[in-house]
Design brief:
Elements (H helix, E strand, L loop, with lengths): L5 H9 L3 E7 L3 H4 L2 H9 L3 E7 L6 H14 L3 E4 L8 H15 L2 E6 L6 H9 L20 E6 L2 E5 L11 H6 L9 H15 L1 H8 L6 H11 L12 H14 L18
């Protein structure tokens, strides 16, 4: 699985006019790196934060994140959904305004694996030119640095995912390797389930058909229900169930999201 190197980030930012960092609207702070923003500022480049997959969160929550980044980080942010076409026209208008100032544009896209960089390029260009996949390291992930012309004098630089040193936690663990190669899928899946259960326990019941507050019991239920048993002892293969939970989270099937620090926790009715 090809990851972007720090030296490549410096080179790409240096040749760009606009630096876009893409984070998922579900967990922006968990995915945002100060490294990209810092390098963009060092080279005096315009830095923009794209909150991708905003269709997976309520519109009000995404707007609150935009306001949070503006007030707390002095950063411009845009809510985008390539699936629903949200925010694409706004980005195009922004690029055209910058084009009038610069004459030509090189736009660099950065982000952890599977946050939607290639999908954004396809939406901007209006056709599928960059391969996509929801899973790290699977077919469709970006293997190298590629430049796409999205309209006259506007070029977008697509980059492989990066794992910056200042970004840690669950999101990094599920994006840094192909799901099949994750060392501790059960531990990671349990953390995902714990977070979702604390958010809204009914979500798990609706998705997997099990009423339980115990992540391990939920994994056992998934394995048994789908017939995933070890051949030698017929015990439930909860490791495969754990990988399913991770895939479902990356797919957006598990509708879980975080709130900006300034908002009060959401209480389901």
């Amino acid at each position: 699985m090809r990851l972007l190197r720090p030296s490549e980030i410096l080179r790409i930012v240096a040749m760009s006019n606009i630096v876009i960092e893409i984070v998922e609207a579900r967990a922006p702070l968990e995915l945002k790196s100060r490294v990209i923003e810092s390098i963009a500022n060092k080279f005096n480049r315009y830095y923009l934060l794209v909150l991708s997959k905003c269709d997976l969160v309520p519109p009000k929550i995404c707007r609150d994140w935009v306001e949070y980044f503006a007030l707390s980080h002095n950063v411009d942010a845009v809510c985008v959904s390539t699936l629903k076409g949200i925010g694409i026209k706004r980005l195009k208008h922004l690029f055209m305004d910058k084009l009038k100032e610069k004459g030509s544009l090189n736009i660099a896209l950065f982000g952890l694996p599977k946050v939607g960089k290639s999908s954004l390029i396809n939406a901007l260009k209006g056709k599928d030119v960059a391969s996509t996949s929801p899973y790290p390291g699977s077919w469709g992930y970006t293997k190298g640095i590629t430049i796409y012309k999205i309209r006259p004098n506007i070029y977008v630089i697509d980059t492989p995912g990066y794992i910056p040193s200042d970004v840690r936690g669950l999101e990094v663990l599920i994006r840094s390797k192909p799901i099949e190669l994750i060392d501790n899928p059960i531990t990671i899946a349990r953390e995902i389930l714990k977070s979702v259960l604390n958010f809204d326990a009914k979500l798990i019941e609706n998705i997997y058909g099990v009423h339980s507050l115990d992540p391990l019991e939920i994994l056992l239920h998934i394995a048994v229900k789908r017939g995933w048993l070890y051949k030698n002892n017929k015990e439930p293969n909860i490791e495969e169930a754990a990988r399913t939970v991770i895939r479902d989270y990356l797919d957006g099937k598990i509708m879980f999201y975080l709130l900006p620090p300034t908002r009060k926790p959401f209480k389901p009715k």
